[in-house]
Amino acid sequence: MIDFKKTGGIIPAIAQDADTGEVLMLAWMNEEAFAETVRTNRACYFSRSRGKLWRKGEESGHVQEIRGIYIDCDADTILLKVTQVGGAACHEGYKSCFFRQVEGELLRVVADRVFDPQTVYKK
Amino acid sequence: MIDFKKTGGIIPAIAQDADTGEVLMLAWMNEEAFAETVRTNRACYFSRSRGKLWRKGEESGHVQEIRGIYIDCDADTILLKVTQVGGAACHEGYKSCFFRQVEGELLRVVADRVFDPQTVYKK
Hints:
Oligomer: homodimer
Number of helices of chain A: 2
């Protein structure tokens, strides 16, 4: 059903707020992460940096409840429509990881923080 | 400003309808594609299968006019807010490439075709 082979076993997964349409983040899934996402109805990704499954929200409590799963025409990209518990998908405390806009040679922060990362992650 | 190195020179770029918020497609950009996108204000991707720049809409006329460019927290994913000329981003004739929803073991088509691909691409 999904072509995990094309990119060496992991493919991009976009998480989108099911209510507002805001794009929250992009992460990666292997076949195991996808199966767990379907089974648990919560987003589970594959962390490329840590080389293992990443159960989104495991540490912060900010899980993503699945409202719908979509596949693109080439069957090699996943779109998740989710409810973001805690209101923020980004570990930096913003609702969306895409909180910076490109303006010429500059990046401008275009969102407000929902939480303080130091409080949530105890770092 | 953007980390093109992490994934061997090409990173994912999400195209989202600037007006409706619908996620239209995911494609890939190298540094050259990104620079051309910024310069021309039209989405230019890097085709992994053809190994060269892909000026979206070059053949079909269905270009994507850039309304905003956003970068994620890790600076390795791009989000384009676009106006999709012709009303459809997908080469299969759908507005969005994500026209199929996962339902158990099945995929269900959840959108209507905007155009007939055979007419647009003369195939």
